[in-house]
Design brief:
The complex is a heterotrimer. Chain A has eleven helices and eight strands. Chain A is of the alpha/beta class. Chain A has one domain: TIM Barrel. In chain A, helix 1 crosses helix 9. Chain B has two domains: about 270 residues, Aldehyde Dehydrogenase, Chain A, domain 1, CATH 3.40.605; about 180 residues, Aldehyde Dehydrogenase, Chain A, domain 2 (3-Layer(aba) Sandwich), CATH 3.40.309. Chain B has 14 helices and 22 strands. In chain B, the strands form six sheets. A seven-stranded mixed sheet of chain B has the order 15-17-18-14-13-19-20, with helices on both faces. In chain B, helix 1 crosses helix 7, helix 2 packs antiparallel against helix 4 and helix 3 packs across helix 4. The longest helix of chain B is centred in the N-terminal third of the chain and has 22 residues. Chain C is of the alpha/beta class. In chain C, the strands form three sheets. Chain C has a five-stranded parallel sheet with strand order 7-6-5-8-9, sandwiched between helices. A three-stranded antiparallel sheet of chain C has the order 3-4-10. A two-stranded antiparallel sheet of chain C has the order 1-2. In chain C, helix 4 runs parallel beside helix 6. Chain C is globular, with a radius of gyration of 19 Å. The N and C termini of chain C lie far apart (about 85 Å). Classes of the chains: A alpha/beta, B alpha/beta, C alpha/beta. Chains in contact: A-B, B-C.
Chain lengths: ~300, ~500, ~260
């Protein structure tokens, strides 16, 4: 059993390694700030820049019980070449699939540069014994997934068992090997922004390379204010320790306009050096086609129809 | 003397993600070349014969010529107001009087883009603010007070409210249309008629408002607009047939006005300057507190009487807060007020820019440390970069005098008592901010701070239902809410 | 010769205009009007309960604007209402009632609420809050302005209403429902049922998910209805004539909050 650090009552983190204090988040103010940033008017070349970036940052996702090798093959093709009629549109960052489909995705993407991310740890609920969850993650890493998206145990978190949550992140990180680890907080279940911040810092303490909002299986999933809270936690970690942790909003981002708002949020909270798929991803599926529609509209001046874009 | 405050062009590092210009179109506004005075329901030539241009502070371009009223013009306006009052404005069934005000509110909502653009053009504030704050609040003020016009008997237990007569009103340039609505709406709801003198540098939205009066079919003489400078304002104040004087502006002029009406029996309300303390405790939600600091002093370029111009930060979190603040200041976009992405607009006038510059220079000379984020300021127009001073002593001019610009002075404190002491150590008392997660501390601070408006875990929030006004030299009388009715009435 | 297209007078529940689930109607004022059943009433209460949180959660200013818009829309249909009621004065009174109550939305808190000086280091304040779902039985006469005089004060504070219209002159109520449907009133905030009061009133009075009931429109014996109301301790409201903020207060609860003052 791993050594969890002694966490004093009130959950103030220890001084070494120096992590920022947990503190609190004012709901009204954070929602207002997010709304303010969402009203930025991003036009023309800056809009194209943001849309292009959003494509490069996308983890194109399919996480259904009904997924098959065929479905994943089609998704992977779309990921590598989103718009066959416009080859200036870049490939996405990654495809995100269930563990069983990882080999098929790997085969399809080859050495195109598109990564394969897999969920693990009894996704989406996380309500399985730790050993099973760690074993699943280890298997997925062994099979060759580039990225692993784990879920935290929300039951443990909400019942105050923070040590267990921390411990599980650490154990999974240990078996990831080369793969980078994203930790899904499932913010829609956490109840308050204070808890989102707490969970963010906990995941980072446990070794997360990325923190991610949601499994996409419940509502609410990603929102601008929740993303802002997580980015602010990441900023505090960076200020305090120099360590850069990435962020991924997932679920509920359907429209290009929203994607642009997230890019603005990232730009004004963390700064231009963070505008890279190495530090920010979108977990989405139908978003891609809406972005393609908007890109073509910016380039041609005409509003577009979904009929002209392949489903996969 | 290479003072950073005077070096106005330090370009920021170009970023990968530059926002393209996003200008709001000016076409929505039709300006006349010349405006007379609005007296007795129509525009008339000024007896003074004097016209001056109103200048756009962002470009220094003249927008329109505006009449400058003299004593004779003001007298005509007061006569028109008195006639309208005697003719029946105060006798109109209150429910019908309410309907005029509801009409005004609705028309302002319908024409809000037009007014917002004009406000930004004439005054220099960002279109985002005039569109999202000034206009909605102005309409809301008329809507709110419309509702009181026929309910006055519920507002004053055991008293019979009656209108005062003619209200003389002098308003400032920082929220021109909003200040107009704060003055006109309750005055009319109470059954008074009005002579209003807009600020010298921002007359245009008041003049466009006359068209709203026309569309709402408000009877002639009920609202009269006399543009001009301080001389016209002084005439309005001292005219013997004005029953009530309402003034918003500097403490200095407020005192002059109070002296001028002494012994006349005129009812007076004053809403004057401030030097508000924004107090951050160590348990505050820090990132949101920084937003509150920024909003408190850089909103409307700091041209706000209740601006949080003194940051009082608990010493234990000083480094962290200043670092966050400086970082956040770096994302403020200063520039064309009509660009939808602009956060900080132009300084309202050359005179105001000179005052700010002078005080900032004094701050550096007295030994405070200045910081301004890199920003690209336009060639023409009047601009000042967002500024923060650290190492400020309570006695420095920048900690005592109202700068009325985007300049923040930072002081520290150790305990709540010390914070209260420092916050109250000023002749002003308009507003204060308190940031802490602890409810009992919010209430304790609220109890001890000598200010008319206390914002806890927020700042610069306004609502027509929320009474606003100061303690001490920040003035007396309240505007907004049930309490805002009282200054407009007399009681039998 | 052109034949007119006659209106069908249906119920107004949850923002839509359904026929009675019973399929029945009754002939009145020269038209067939839906005859609401107990199941329709059940549906209406459910719709009101669902709509309540959103309406109560809107800012008072927003609610005031919605009521003002009802007045605007009604004013636009003056002729239609004057024809139904036979009285322009009644229509004026109804429209002006909406305007009057619209202005109260953001003032009730200041007139009815308070900050209370208690003998201890506590901040203590009282705020009015809507009680929830309110049942209103509209008077038989005047069928339009009497209804508005009961309805506007019930909803201005944030309550959702199930209203039983005048049995013998229901057309004005249904036409008013059309106005409500085009005035930004969220669906379910007001529900209008037409039919036999003798059938509907006991069901409304006995419904366990209705928080308050206004029996002003009940002619005859109210005692039985008041007894039924006691089953879930409904607030039984007996507002008088005219307009008053106290008519709105009758449907509001008062909540008092304490918080210590200290460092």
């Amino acid at each position: 059993m791993a050594q969890a650090p002694v966490l004093p009552r009130g959950f103030e983190l220890p001084l070494e390694p120096r992590l920022p204090r947990i503190g609190s988040v004012d709901q009204v103010a954070v929602e207002e700030r997010a709304a303010d940033l969402s009203r930025r008017s991003i036009k023309r070349e800056s809009k194209l820049f943001a849309l292009d970036l959003a494509v490069r940052m996308m983890d194109l996702t399919t996480l259904e019980g009904a997924d098959t090798p065929g479905k994943v093959a089609a998704l992977s093709s779309k990921a590598m070449r989103p718009d066959p009629s416009d080859l200036t549109v870049p490939p996405v960052a990654a495809v995100c699939v269930y563990p069983n489909l990882v080999p098929h995705a790997l085969e399809r993407v080859g050495d195109s540069g598109v990564k394969v991310a897999s969920v693990a740890t009894a996704f989406p609920s996380g309500q399985s014994p730790l050993e099973i969850k760690v074993e699943e993650a280890a298997l997925v890493a062994e099979v060759g997934a580039h990225e692993i998206d784990m879920v935290i145990d929300r039951g443990a978190f909400l019942s105050g068992n923070y040590a267990k949550v921390y411990d599980e992140v650490r154990r999974v990180k240990e078996v990831c090997g080369e793969a980078h680890l994203k930790v899904i907080l499932e913010t829609g279940e956490l109840g308050t922004y204070d808890n989102v911040r707490r969970a963010s810092l906990l995941a980072v303490a446990g070794g997360a390379d990325f923190i991610k909002t949601s499994t996409g299986k419940i509502q609410p999933a990603a929102t601008l204010p929740v993303t802002l809270v997580m980015l602010e936690a990441i900023r505090d970690v960076y200020e305090e320790t120099g360590r850069r942790v990435g962020m991924k909003p997932a679920g509920g981002i359907r429209y290009a306009k929203q994607a642009v708002q997230y890019v603005v949020l990232l730009n004004e909270t963390l700064g231009p050096e963070w505008l890279t798929p190495d530090l920010f991803r979108f977990g989405a599926s139908s978003l891609l086609n809406d972005i393609l529609l908007q890109i073509r509209k910016e380039k041609t001046g005409r509003y577009q129809s979904p009929d002209y874009f392949t489903l996969d | 003397m290479g003072s950073p405050a005077l070096k106005q062009d330090r370009s920021p590092v170009p970023s990968a993600f530059e926002y393209a210009p996003a200008p709001e179109s000016r076409d929505v506004v039709q300006l006349e070349k010349r405006y007379g005075l609005f007296i007795g329901g129509e525009f008339v030539e000024p007896r003074s014969g004097e016209f001056q241009p109103s200048i756009s502070p962002a470009t220094e371009e003249p927008l329109a010529d505006v009449a400058y009223a003299d004593a004779e013009d003001v007298a005509l306006a007061v006569t028109a107001a008195r006639e309208a009052f005697d003719d029946g404005w105060s006798d109109i069934a209150p429910a019908e009087r309410a309907k005029y005000l509801y009409r005004i509110a609705r028309i302002l909502q319908e024409r809000s883009r037009e007014f917002a653009v004009l406000e930004s053009l004439d005054g220099g504030k960002p279109i985002r603010e005039s569109r999202d704050v000034d206009l909605p609040l102005a309409a809301a003020h008329f809507f709110y007070y419309a509702g009181w016009a026929d309910k006055l008997e519920y507002a004053f237990p055991n008293r019979t409210p009656r209108p005062l007569g003619v209200a003389g009103q002098v308003i400032p340039w920082n929220f021109p249309l909003l200040m107009l609505s704060w003055k006109v709406a309750p005055a009319l709801a109470a059954g008074n008629t009005v002579v209003l003198k807009p600020a010298e540098t921002t007359p245009l939205t008041a003049l466009l408002f006359c068209d709203v009066l026309r569309q709402a079919e408000v009877p002639p003489g009920v609202v009269n607009i006399v543009t001009g400078d301080g001389r016209a304002g002084a005439e309005v104040v001292k005219h013997p047939d004005v029953d009530k004087v309402a003034f918003t502006g500097s403490t200095e002029v407020g005192k002059e006005i109070q002296r001028a009406v002494a012994g006349t029996g005129k009812k007076l309300t004053l809403e004057l300057g401030g030097k508000a303390a924004n107090i951050i405790f160590d348990d505050a939600p820090l990132d949101q507190a920084v937003e509150g600091i920024v909003n408190g002093i850089y909103f409307n370029q700091g041209h706000v009487c209740c601006a949080g111009s003194r940051l009082l930060v608990q010493e234990s979190i000083y480094e962290q807060v200043i670092a966050k603040l400086k970082r956040r200041m770096g994302t403020l976009r200063v520039g064309d007020p009509l660009d939808k992405n602009t956060d900080v607009g132009a300084i309202n006038s050359k005179a105001q820019l000179d005052r700010i510059t002078e005080l900032v220079r004094a701050g550096e000379e007295e030994g405070a440390e200045i910081f301004q984020p890199p920003c690209r300021l336009p060639e023409k127009g009047w601009w000042f970069a967002p500024t923060v001073f650290t190492n400020v002593a309570q006695s420095y001019r920048i900690a005592q005098e109202e700068i009325f610009g985007p300049v923040l002075s930072v002081l520290t404190f150790r305990t709540p008592d010390e914070a209260v002491e420092k916050a109250n150590n000023t002749p002003y008392g308009l507003s204060a901010g308190v940031w802490t997660e602890k409810g009992s501390r919010i209430l304790s601070m609220a109890q001890q701070l000598r200010a008319g408006v206390i914002w806890a875990n927020t700042y610069n929030r306004f609502d027509p239902g929320s009474p606003f006004g100061g303690y001490k030299e920040s003035g007396f009388g309240r505007e907004g809410g049930l309490h805002g009715l009282e200054p407009n009435m007399r009681f039998e | 010769m052109r034949l007119s297209v006659k209106k069908t007078y249906k119920l107004y529940i949850g923002g839509s205009f359904p026929r009675s689930e019973s399929g029945r109607s009754y002939e009145v004022e020269g038209a067939n009007v839906a005859l609401a059943s107990r199941k329709d009433l059940r549906d209406a209460v459910r719709a009101a309960r669902e709509a309540f949180p959103k309406w109560a959660g809107m800012t008072a200013y927003n609610r005031g604007q919605v009521l003002y818009r009802v007045a605007e829309m009604m004013e636009g249909r003056r002729e239609q209402f004057a024809e139904l009621t036979g009285s322009e004065a009644e229509v004026n009174s109804a429209v002006d009632s909406w305007v009057w109550y619209a202005g109260w939305a953001d003032k009730l808190g200041q007139v009815l609420g308070s900050s209370n000086p208690v003998a201890g280091p506590y901040f203590n304040f009282t705020v009015p809050e809507p009680t929830g779902v309110v049942g209103v039985v509209a008077p038989e006469e005047p069928a339009l302005s009497g209804l508005v005089a009961r309805l506007a004060p019930a909803i201005v504070g944030g309550n959702a209403v199930v209203l039983i219209a005048s049995e013998h002159r229901p057309l004005a109520a249904v036409t008013l429902a059309e106005v409500l449907a085009t005035s930004d009133v969220p669906g379910g905030v007001v529900n209008v049922l037409t039919g036999r009061k003798a059938d509907l009133c006991p069901v409304l009075a006995g419904h366990m998910d209705v928080n308050a009931i206004d029996l002003a429109g009940v002619d005859g014996d109210r005692a039985e209805l008041e007894r039924l109301a006691a089953e879930n301790v409904k607030r039984v409201v007996r507002n008088g004539e005219g307009q008053s903020p106290w008519h709105a207060a009758a449907f509001l609860e008062l909540k008092t909050v304490w918080h210590p003052i200290g460092v």
